[in-house]
User: Fold this.
Amino acid sequence: MQNSKPEKLKQTLTGYIAQAVYPVVFLGEVFSAKPRLARRKRELLYYLDLCGVKSLPVVIIISLLMGSIIAMQGILQMRKVGAEIFIVDLVGFAVLKEFGPLMVAMISTGRAGSAFAAEIGTMKVNEEIYALQTMGVNPYSYLVYPKLAAMLVAIPVLTVFGDAFSILGGMILSTSACDITPAAYWARSTAVLNGTVFMLGIIKSAVFGVLITLAGCCCGFSAEGNAQGVGRGATQAVVASIFLVVIADAVMTLLFTFIGY
Amino acid sequence: MRNKIIEVTQLDIGYDNTPILCDLDFDVYEGEILFILGNSGCGKSTLLKHLTGLYQPLRGDIKLRNKSIVNASGQEKNELYKSFGVTYQGGALLGSLTVAENVAFPLEEHTSLTQDEIDSIVEEKLSLVDLTGFGNLMPSELSGGMKKRAGLARALALSPDLLFFDEPSAGLDPLSSSALDRLILDIRSKINATVVVVSHELDSIFSIADRIIMLDKERKGIVAEGEPHDLRANSSDSWVRNFLNRNNMR
Ligand SMILES: Nc1ncnc2c1ncn2[C@@H]1O[C@H](COP(=O)(O)OP(=O)(O)OP(=O)(O)O)[C@@H](O)[C@H]1O
Ligand SMILES: [Mg+2]
Assistant:
């Protein structure tokens, strides 16, 4: 039976609309499902390991480099006005407010976000999602909440490491490139930086963690049921996560600036 | 009068508004072993997914124990699913869990049994499908037939009384396949379970099916319904007779 042209057009259009509203449907499913995290210790540990412990080395290396890059660029400019000690402020605030949370979010997007999408997409191909349903287990609850909980713990903790190692990187570079002693660097750091700035960065990172997880899972659930579909889902997850993280960052930065930080 | 477990009325099913099977009307009775057969791609797996409430039909209704599964909420479906055992064509084992953890999964979800009790049930179910000793392997380390049998063990974990099997014996050797037949008979006699099987195994059909439903891709619907020996001998439809006589024609 061949479909007529208007019929085909209608189908294509409804297809596009369904795709466009899917994130809303997905969020509805997730938030109406019960988390039941107490039963999910095994999954929780697995994702803590995947998103937290296994990401730590990359976070440390990138943060060290990132901190020294910021310091290097800063020193070049500060030299012009002979105010090299302000490099401490620059590195400290840039890292705690922006680069710490953002670098960790980018690393986690690549590691966790795409892995979530690929995992759920593959489960769809293998009919595992159906199997969960007919076993009376809500797939949204089983597949999203453990990841969300693990990311909510892992990302802020990674950000603490990211902050610390970025500042260390900045310190190593500035103390070797200018005549700032490590003691002077540390003294200046503790004088200008405060707990609130640090905490606001951690809050940012937690928001990023939620966005990355939801984007990854949503792209997994909406992936087409074949190998290419899974690949596209993983790619989409990365693109969507980066987009959401940057938008959320802009909004939160505005908000925090507005309240005086 | 036997109890109707499943009632299908005027059901149209398909993908993207294109029907693949139309106007299906049939019942499944308590304690019955019903086989659904038909040519490849005619929509047997799709029908099974509708019967288990995974897909929304284009039209019509499916009642399970007098409650429509088409209009059921997620919560209501989850209640129904506790008495379901479903297997999928490819096994559909959870890839992140071992075989034993897969079989234990429904028990952990829906019962408050202790770990020891769960372990002994898992062992029992694995031995039913001849997979004793394979519990610690990951699904990716199993052959296709083993995956199917592990899926079967998982479907039986909660001793459900309504079973849906999608081609459980495809890919099994004749001995395993006849062991599977005995297993199905055994489950039925023990807990009076109702079993709906999609299968092409004529040997199984003639030895254990109480009733069969035959679907045809061309005619998009049920072309015959009844007792298999009777249909083979007396069906007025030559397509049906040929289908069931495949062995005799060789
Ligand atoms: N996800 C899907 N989207 C669109 N069409 C599909 C989808 N899955 C299956 N179909 C189509 O629906 C029809 C029925 O498929 P189904 O898997 O139910 O067949 P089947 O009877 O189980 O076949 P087999 O005996 O080979 O397993 C096929 O023609 C197939 O092309
Ligand atoms: Mg099939």
Notes: The first strand of chain B starts at residue 4 and ends at 15.
